[in-house]
Structure formats: C-alpha cells, structure tokens
Give the backbone structure.
Amino acid sequence: MDKLTPEQRHKNMVAVKGKGTKIEILLGKSLWNAGLHFRKNNKTIFGHPDFSHKGKKIAIFCDGEMWHGKDWEKQQADFKSNREFWIPKIERNIARDKEVNARLQAEGWAVIRFWETDIKKNITACVEEVRKVYEAI
C-alpha cells in the first residue's frame, strides 16, 4: 500500500529526472577518453538523446532494462503489484522508443541504443560501436 496520496506520488514521480545517471557518466567518460566528444542531453533534438553529435547526426541513448522493457515478454511477469499501472507504462515507453528511433532515422540520424547492463559489463564494446558509426559518417 502506498503511503502517499496519488497527488503526492505524481509530484514525486514528475520530479524524477533521468539525467546524470551512473551509466551515462560511465559511457560519457569512456567516449571522452576515446576522443569521441558528444553533447549531453540536448533538448533541441527529438527524443532528447543522452548523447548527441549534431554535425554527424548521431544520437545515443542509455536505456535501463526495467524502464525500457528489455526482454519484455519475460520481464512483465516479474511485476507482482500495481500491474495495471506498470505494464501499460513500460509498454508506452517501448512504443515511444520506437517512435523516436523512426523519426530520427527518417531525419537522417544514426540512432544507437545501449542497455544498462551492456554499458556496465562491456563498455569497451559500446565505445567501439560508437566509434564505428562515428568514423563511417
């Protein structure tokens, strides 16, 4: 049972910002050390990518498994409480990610998405993937 009223919970959740997370910091420092410089959280680009390079039209997103629905068919069974809220919310996040990818790609952007665990476990492979796209453009 939630100890907050729906209004209080809404106010708290609206205040949560997904900027400056551990995975963003890790990826950002690794990209910088590799000589790949990107702007962080550019709000002028559709979808507000975590990292972007306007000149080369590269958008990079760091997605958390829970919030963006990695292995969604399996993961949704893990939600035991408040399923009526969480399942539609995450399914909407998945749909929004697809919309963002489609629009950016239609505008000529290269879109790269990394899962949180991929960044944590194999940052070198993530940086190399970005480097390949960066050099190809």
User: Anything to note?
Assistant: The beta strands are 39-40, 51-53, 58-63, 110-115.
